[in-house]
Amino acid sequence: MIRWWLGTLMALSTKDHPRERSGWTYVYSVLSRRTGGVSVGINLHPNKACNWRCVYCQVPGLQLGVGPAIDLGLLERELEAELERSSGANSPGVTEGPTLRVGDIAFSGDGEPTNSPDFAAAVEVGLSVRARRGLEQAVPLVLITNGSLVDRPKVRPALERLGGHGGRVWFKLDAVSEAAVGRMNSTRQAPERVQARLLEASRACPTWIQTMLLAFDGPSMDERERERYCEFLHQSLSGGAQLRGVHLYGLARQSHQPEAPQLRALPSEELHAFARQIHRHTGLEVQVHP
Ligand code: SF4
Q1: Considering only CA atoms, which residue is closest to atom 5 of ligand 1?
Q2: Distance 230 CA to ligand 1 centre (A)
């Protein structure tokens, strides 16, 4: 089984994240730039519905909406089976290399995870399957979120459960001003509300910022917007946000949105220069993934 699973993963790359290759409804594995290894993903939106529409979104057929009710029994069986497949790669005797070890179990997929009616119940499934397999210490649960719903009464307790069990949050921040956010994420978000939600998320779980920097009729953040971004993070830290760092991404995967032909990756040096700027202003560690 482990040989088949490794073969499937070797056919993938960090530039290729199709959920369909797993053959399952909710669970899939990808090679992840973020973890530097395998991320076992939980997709609560097989209907490809999200409350945002980011110009770089790699979900084909993305639609505006919420996730469907989740078959929690099926989710549990799929997660068990995927971790069983990978169990050889995480055992001490296997030498295929660190990139094939499971780095995390991530709520991610084809829509905003917290926009699922069963997000909290799915977190419980993740916690209990991981515990049954004895992976509490080795494999953290991660929520990859656009952050827009983390202050909802149904979401907050689930974040606290994650935080209480070593979970982490990756909070999307591609820009700060309403205009720049509108262009990148097709949503209206007042910076003060985003800051309040960031504070809330980071109180519940160790939180990393995830930011995409690309060219789209010019850089997605111009000089002024980059200053705003640094100031926003600085203020968030001063206001008590417990931030662990920033993951700064370049465009590596194919967008499936209408803007795709206009998007370009920025030179790696530009990402590194922005990373240095962020670090100077905030003291945060910045990891660059061109
Ligand atoms: S938040 Fe994620 S799933 Fe939703 S549109 Fe943006 S990139 Fe796609």
Answers
A1: 53
A2: 23
